[in-house]
Fold:
Amino acid sequence: MNFETKQDVLDWYEGQERALTPSFIKDIPWHDVKNHRLPDDLVPVLIYMRDIEILTDMYHEELRRTPTGKDRVISKFMERWGIEEITHGELINRFLNEAGYNTPVTWKEDVKSSVTSKYHLYARLLTTLTNCVGKSFTATHMAYGAINELSAAQSYRRLIAKAEHPVLTHFVKGIIREESVHTQFYLSVARLELRKSRFARRIARFVIDNFWNPVGSGARPKDLSDYTIAKLFHGKEGHDWFERLVTEKIRPLPGFDGLTSVTERIAVIADESPLSAPRLLIN
Structure:
């Protein structure tokens, strides 16, 4: 899709109906979850995904402190984006409970409070540096977001294939549809912003090549994030999947031709991390 302005992108986005409507959620056959086996080794993956989705408020607050987050169009997008992402986390948590992996009533608060002060300090420092660059950094934010949304969608697809659980498949496909709409917004705005200046392209490419890490890195325990990536993208088949469906989708962006660093980063984590599940604080 080719858009002339960010407002055009927002108008398109706001015209998309949600996949996870109240009626869709109401009709999820939760009663059938326990009738199908959920591999234990995928529980940490689900917890990681749940946590990342539920921390959207934190990411949103970080972005609001930057010129990107103050942009009227992007701010409007993020209002709906945040609601949708939190719904994703809530559905995953419901599924875990229905599958017999009980989580506390305070799970949302527990996830948010577990983010370390070191991460918050780093986020504050990054925000300060971003503000020094100004609006030219919006292209970087949007390219970074596009990579993360593509990564999320492909992680969910890998989860579906490995779990082979019909109820999980049913609602996660709805999550994927919403993530795909988010991806289109990020890619479209990134393309418009990258076209504006050579400086914006150079900054974006430099940051992605040298500092990109999978979404949630630092905000969640390293053993949990590394395990999730290893479980989903280990080996040549996993690398090729990520390369084809994530990195190759980013290369057409202005300034990103020949991009290899994103797949390389995933490959290193996936192949060097242990495939033994981390300890979890659930019943």
